[in-house]
Design goal:
Layout: H1 2-26, H2 33-40, H3 44-50, H4 54-68, H5 83-98, H6 101-115, H7 118-131, H8 133-144, H9 153-168, H10 170-175, H11 182-200
Helix pairs in contact: 1-2, 2-3, 4-6, 5-11, 6-7, 8-9, 9-11
Domain HTH tetR-type: 9-69
Protein name: TetR/AcrR family transcriptional regulator
GO molecular function, one term: transcription cis-regulatory region binding
């Protein structure tokens, strides 16, 4: 039973990778399940066995994007460590993810597909917000420990994400600029930390 299962997983992965390529080159509206099947080297029936519709297939691609965003949640708040060191670790993980070409490809697909569909855009923004909750939780815990000033944690987290994405996400997504090199990443991180801590640290 192991071999068929592995074959099924390989076919599913081939379909997903082909869909990513097709959505990226042609956009959501133009891409067809027939084209995805041809690119993946499987039958159209096989595609539908894994994904009942193009929307379901796209949703699975978006799910991969959302899962990528949880990287920042791997660093919990620590009462014994300097705030700057903890935040730096969070931001380094964020920038590492934002520099990943696969992540950027998925983000481009998601953004392009939602431009002409307010419903998709609203769903994407809502799910993005849920996945970025990790930093807000960290801020809330630092506030409870008396180390950060009172502020809406979600608002402060969004500010921090904005400081990072201005340099390490939107230029790459909208203008095709290369991902930041390590020295540039460090500069963006330290500058964001300066601004955030100057505003909110007690």
């Amino acid at each position: 039973m192991t071999v068929p299962q592995r074959l099924t997983e390989r076919k599913r992965e081939a379909i997903l990778q082909s869909a990513i390529a097709e959505f990226r080159s042609s956009g959501f509206e133009i891409t067809s399940m027939d084209r995805i099947a041809a690119t993946a080297g499987v039958s159209k029936r096989t595609v539908y066995n894994h994904f009942p519709s193009k929307e379901a297939l796209f949703a699975e691609i978006l799910n991969r994007l959302w899962n990528s965003i949880t990287a920042e949640q791997l660093t919990p708040y620590s009462p014994d460590q300097p705030l700057r060191d903890q935040l730096r670790t969070l931001l380094q993980a964020k920038l590492q993810m934002l520099a990943d070409e696969n992540f950027l490809d998925l983000a481009r697909i998601a953004i392009a597909a939602t431009i002409h569909s307010p419903e998709r855009a609203q769903d994407m923004v809502a799910r993005m917000g849920e996945r970025e909750e990790g930093l807000a939780v960290w801020i809330r815990m630092a506030q409870a420990a008396g180390r950060l000033k009172p502020v809406d944690p979600a608002f402060a987290a969004q500010q921090m994400h904005g400081l990072i994405k201005t340099f390490a996400f939107w230029p790459q997504i909208s203008m095709g600029q290369p991902s930041l090199a390590s020295p540039e990443q460090a500069q963006v991180i330290e500058s964001a930390l300066d601004m955030f801590l100057a505003c909110y640290q007690r």
